[in-house]
Amino acid sequence: MKLSQFRFKLDDEQVALHPSYHRDECKLMVLHRKSQTIDMFRTDDKGEILKDKDGQPQYLDFRNVLDYFDENDTFIFNDSKVFPARLYGTKERTDAKIEVFLLRELNRDMRLWDVLVEPARKIRIGNKLFFDDSGTMVAEVIDNTTSRGRTLRFLYDSPHEEFKRDLFALGEAPLPHYIVDRRPVEKDDMERFQCIFAKHEGAVTAPASGLHFSREMMKRMEIKGINFAFVTVHCALGNFNTIEVEDLTKHKMDNEQMLIDSEACRIVNTARQEGRRICAVGTSVAKATETAVGTDGQLKEFDGWTNKFIFPPYDFKLANCMIANFYHPMSTLLMSTCAFGGYELVMKAYELALENGYMFGCYGDAMLIVDD
User: Fold this and answer.
1) If you write DSSP's letter for every residue of 223-263 in order, what string do you get?
2) Three-state SS for 343?
3) What is the pLDDT of residue 66?
4) Band of residue 146 on the pLDDT scale cut at 50, 70, 90
5) CA 284, CA 310: separation in Å to the nearest integer?
6) CA dist., res. 83 & res. 165, Å (int)
7) Tell me, what DSSP letter sits at residue 329?
8) Average pLDDT for residues 133-157, to the nearest whole number?
9) Which listed residue, 13, 129, 181, 203, has the most CB atoms within 10 A of its CB?
10) pTM of whole model > 0.85?
11) Cβ-proximal residues to 93 (8 Å cutoff; 6+ apart), any chain
12) Which distant-in-sequence residues (6+ apart) come within 8 Å of 264 by Cβ?
């Protein structure tokens, strides 16, 4: 497919700058792949649309996800944990303000980090950056990696855990620029930009579809007998990179580190053998399971990296349901959603979302795609 097939007009007003007050109360749209139908509204036992006191139709909300699943169905979650990756430092001598975005730690003993800097034109090898008023957190640029990429060596003499604690204390929630360019990061963003089941630190952006799950909803799922499997995909900034080629086969994704253990494989493969629904919560989970699924359709253990780019047409071999957010035009996340739900059906859903005031982005509304 071509990049231009994923272009649509999205007004700033429909990009969510804040999460729902309660995690599980955003709008939900449900797509049925086989019947090519879309659910948007609550209905009564006769299938009639329910209306509020003002006569307006009642939209489905995220808690209605449970209505589409039964006992022993399985949800696969990404338990990657976001760390406060965005810092602001000042350049030695000039006091120029520099944004430093931590990507990953390269060497814990040498305090080496792979980072992005902005504005990059001001940062060269040998420059020093200061991150606090006391001058104790200092980093030296020791290499250029990409146009905006640098390798920093932090000059901080302390045990590693103390260093990371102090470094992260200076950082803030790594919200995407489509949010931070329009409002400041707030105190509770670090908590809200984190899934409640987050466990393994390493993500620099949240697996957004998992943000909708509240503790109350997870408990209701347990009571209903739904099984949980957890995989780890450290979501990277490549999900937000601008695609610069019209032919999607020529686009290269950044690598993301992922781990799938034997327990996740056992739970998922049992559900598959029993013919249950298997729901990938988010495009990161879909990417991970499609990376690790074998030719026999069984999920395999995996510990490594993936740069898998999923776009239509694509035959998914494992999950038969998926939860996604509403994503930006021409994004890899939209393309992955279209690959799962079908291009025509998903783009029709996006038209309805735009017409009905659904919110887009990581803090926006949700979509559930089921077979039928």
Assistant:
1) HHT-EEEEEEE---GGGGPPP--SBGGG--PPPEEEEE-HH
2) helix
3) 96
4) confident
5) 10
6) 11
7) T
8) 89
9) 203
10) yes
11) none
12) 76, 229, 230, 231, 299
What tokens does 28 get? Answer: 């939900």
Amino acid at 120: A
Question: How far apart (Å, rounded) are the C-alpha atoms in residues 98 and 176?
Answer: 17
Q: What is the CA radius of gyration of the chain?
A: 22
d(CA 70, CA 315): 25
Position 147 scores a pLDDT of: 84
Q: Is the pLDDT of residue 101 over 80?
A: yes
d(CA 357, CA 10): 11
Under DSSP, is residue 348 helix (H, G, I), strand (E, B) or coil? helix
Pairing of strands 366-370, 278-281: unpaired
CA distance linking residue 331 with residue 333, whole number of Å: 5
Mean pLDDT of 219-244: 93
**CB distance 174 to 205 below 8 Å:** yes
Q: What is the number of other CB atoms lying within 10 angstroms of the CB of residue 136? A: 13
> Residue 160: which pLDDT band, with cuts at 50, 70 and 90?
very high
Contact 310, 286 (CB under 8 A): yes
Distance of CA 368 to the CA centre of its chain: 15
Compute how many other C-beta atoms are within 10 angstroms of the C-beta atom of residue 362.
22
Amino acid code (one letter) for 346: V
- What average pLDDT does range 180-202 have in this prediction? 95
Cis peptide before 174 (omega within 30 of 0): no
| Cis? peptide before 207, omega within 30° of 0 | no
The phi-psi region of residue 95 (left if phi > 0; otherwise alpha if psi is between -120 and 50; otherwise beta) is left
Residues 6+ apart with CB under 8 A from 193: 82, 173, 174, 175, 206, 211, 362
What is residue 366's predicted lDDT score, i.e. its pLDDT?
98
Tell me the residue type at 192.
R
* Contact residues for 262 (Cβ-Cβ < 8 A; gap 6+): 301
Distances from the Cα of 269 to the Cα of 231, 261, 321, angstroms: 14, 12, 15
Identify which of 301, 295, 291 has the alpha carbon closest to the alpha carbon of residue 229. 301
Grouping H, G, I as helix, E, B as strand and the rest as coil, residue 111 is: coil
Please provide the average confidence, as pLDDT, over all residues in the chain. 95
Cα–Cα dist 258/287, whole Å: 10
